[in-house]
Amino acid sequence: MSRTDAQGSTPPTAHSRSRWQRLKKPLTVAFFLLLIVLFTLLARRIDWSEVLGTLADFKVRTLLVAAGLTLGSFLVYACFDLIGRTYIRQDLGWRQILPVGFISYAFNLNLSAWVGGIAMRYRLYSRLGVSAANIAKILGLSLATNWFGYMVLAGAVFASGLMQLPPGWQLSSGALRGVGVLLLALSAGYLLACRFSRRREWAIRGVEINLPSLRMALLQLALGALNWSLMAAVIFTLLPARLDYPVVLGVLLISSIAGVITHIPAGLGVLEAVFVALLQHEVPRGSLLAGLIAYRAIYFLLPLLIALLMYLLVEARAKALRVRKTSRKDH
C-alpha cells in the first residue's frame, strides 16, 4: 500500500514521523551541548580544594557509612520507576529500569529537574520503546511518590513538635505544627481517594492519569518516606554526634522546601543557610558547614560522576546496536 491517500497527500502520521526524524539529530546535539554547559557551570560553583580538604578530615569509616546510605537512597529512588512500570503496565525488566532511575536522580539533584527528571528520562526511556505519554506517566508517578512520602514524613515530624524554630522567624513553632497536621490530612485524603474514589481516570492535556490502587499508594508512601529518611541519615552521619536524628530530619525537610521555592540547582547555599540558621545554637557553625560540604560531595557529586559514566555506557551500547542493525540491513 502506498504511503499516500487517494488524493496523493501524505498521511498526518507520516508527516509527524518525518518531521521528528529531521529534528532528532539537532535536538540530540543541543541536549549534549546543554549538558556540557551545565556541567561547566556546576564545576565553577564548587570549591574543589575545600571539598577535598573537608573529606580528608573525616574518618574513612564515617565516609563509607555515608556512601552506603547514599547508595541505598539512590536505589530506593530508582524503585520509584519500578512502581511506574507497574502503573503503565509495560514489560520492562528491573535491570532496564533501575539505571534510568539512578541516572535521572543524580542529574536531577545537580542540574535541575528539567535536565534529570524530564529530558534524561525521556531520552533513556524512549530508547527502551516507551511512548511519550507513558514517560510522562512514569515521571508524574515518581514525583507523586517523592512528595507523598515527604508530606507524610514532614507532617509527622512537624506535628510532633520536635522542631522548634528560632525566635524571629516568620513561621512560629505552633504554625509549623499546624502545617504538619495539614500535611497529614492531605496525605490521608489521598489514601482515602485511592481506596474509595469511584472515578479512577482523568485526562490532562491529552495525557491520561489513573488513580493508583490503595496498595500502590501505600508502596509510594513507604518508598518516598524511606528515601527522605536515608537522605537525613547521610547528613546525620556527617554532622556532630550531639545532634539528634529527628532534628536533622526536620531541618532537611524544611530546607528542601526552601530549595524548591528558590529553583536553584542542587539548592546551592539554601541547604547550608537553613541548617546554620536552625542549628548554630546547638553546634559550631564550622562543624555544620564541614558536614554539609561532605554531604554534597558524597550525595550529589559522587553519584553524578557515576551516573555520567553509566549514561556514556548506555549511549555507547545504543550506538553499537544501531551499527549492528545497519550492517545487517546492508548485508
SSE blueprint:
Blueprint: H1 12-45, H2 48-56, H3 60-88, H4 94-111, H5 113-127, H6 132-160, H7 173-196, E1 201-204, E2 207-210, H8 214-238, H9 245-262, H10 270-279, H11 285-330
Antiparallel strand pairs: 1-2
Helix pairs in contact: 2-11, 3-4, 3-6, 3-8, 3-11, 4-5, 4-11, 5-6, 6-7, 6-8, 6-9, 8-9, 8-11, 9-10, 10-11
> Mean of the pLDDT scores?
80
Query: Percent helix among the residues?
Result: over 70%
Gap from first CA to last CA: 25 Å
Number of helices: 11
Q: Assess the beta-strand content as a share of residues.
A: under 5%
Which blocks of ≥5 consecutive residues have pLDDT under 50?
A: 1-6, 262-268
H/E element order:
HHHHHHHEEHHHH
Q: Structurally, how many domains make up the residues?
A: 1
Radius of gyration: 23 Å
In spatial order, strands of the major sheet run 1-2
Q: Oligomeric status of the shown chains? A: single chain
How can the largest sheet be summarized? 2 strands, antiparallel
Shape: globular
* Total number of strands: 2
Key terms for this structure?
globular; single chain; two-stranded antiparallel sheet; mainly alpha; 2% strand; disordered N terminus
3D structure, described in words:
The structure is a single chain. This protein is mainly α and 331 residues long. It has one domain (59-312). It has helices spanning 12-45, 48-56, 60-88, 94-111, 113-127, 132-160, 173-196, 214-238, 245-262, 270-279, 285-330, and strands at 201-204, 207-210. A two-stranded antiparallel ribbon has the order 1-2. Strand 1 and strand 2 form a beta hairpin. Helix 3 packs across helix 11 (285-330), helix 8 crosses helix 11 and helix 9 packs across helix 10. It starts with 11 loop residues before the first helix and ends with a helix.
